[in-house]
Amino acid sequence: MRILVINGPNLNMLGIREPEVYGKSTFQDLLSLLDRVAAEEDIEIEQYQSNHEGCLVDKIQEAYGKFDGIVINPAAYTHTSVAILDALKAVDLPAVEVHISDVDSREPFRQISYAGLACKKTIKGLGFEGYRQAILFLKNALQ
Ligand code: CA2
């Protein structure tokens, strides 16, 4: 089973600022954690991060035929990007949306998710644990 984990803009800055919102752990900590989860669960994962909307769309398109599912935190593009929504719909792979923070208890604009419209499930407010749960959800759904 192959799962693509995609992180959007500024998530590579995790641990550097706003620890009260996103925690103290770094992006490298997240990558290492998910590599460990994948090894434990006997799943192949590829992790990708970009600050650019078009690159995220390209990566989603490339997943077609190569991956069985997608875990995605589109970060700020969650709330703006119809292009990412359309790419997820186009490849039609089972996808789970993850947010580290509880977007529902933040500014009203964060309560709108375009990408989420193409996802089977959204996990928010659980920190890095949300990514682990997303991988386990896909593993279960795909078996
Ligand atoms: O809670 C999440 O995972 C978000 O997707 C994170 C995005 C935000 O725009 C979404 O509304 C919710 C922001 C990621 C920015 O990460 C930072 C990391 C360090 C310092 C500042 C921002």
Describe this structure in words.
- The chain is α/β, with parallel strands linked by helices.
- Helix content is 37%, strand content 18%.
- The protein contains 5 helices and 5 strands, in the order βααβαβαββα.
- A 5-stranded parallel sheet has the order 2-1-3-4-5, sandwiched between helices.
- Helix 2 (27-41) runs parallel beside helix 5 (129-142) and helix 3 (53-62) packs parallel to helix 4.
- It is globular and about 35 Å long.
- The mean pLDDT is 97.
- The structure holds ligand CA2.
What is this structure, in a nutshell?
This protein has 143 residues and is an alpha/beta fold.
Could you give the topology of this structure?
Layout lengths: L1 E6 L11 H4 L4 H15 L2 E6 L3 H10 L6 E5 L8 H10 L3 E5 L21 E4 L4 H14 L1
Parallel strand pairs: 1-2, 1-3, 3-4, 4-5
Bound molecules: ligand CA2.
Unreliable spans: none
Helix content: 25-40%
The secondary structure category is alpha/beta
Please compute the radius of gyration using only Cα atoms. Answer: 14 Å
Bound molecules: ligand CA2
**How many H/I helical runs?**
5
Number of E-state strands: 5
User: Which strand order do you get reading across the main beta sheet?
Assistant: 2-1-3-4-5
Strand content: 15-25%
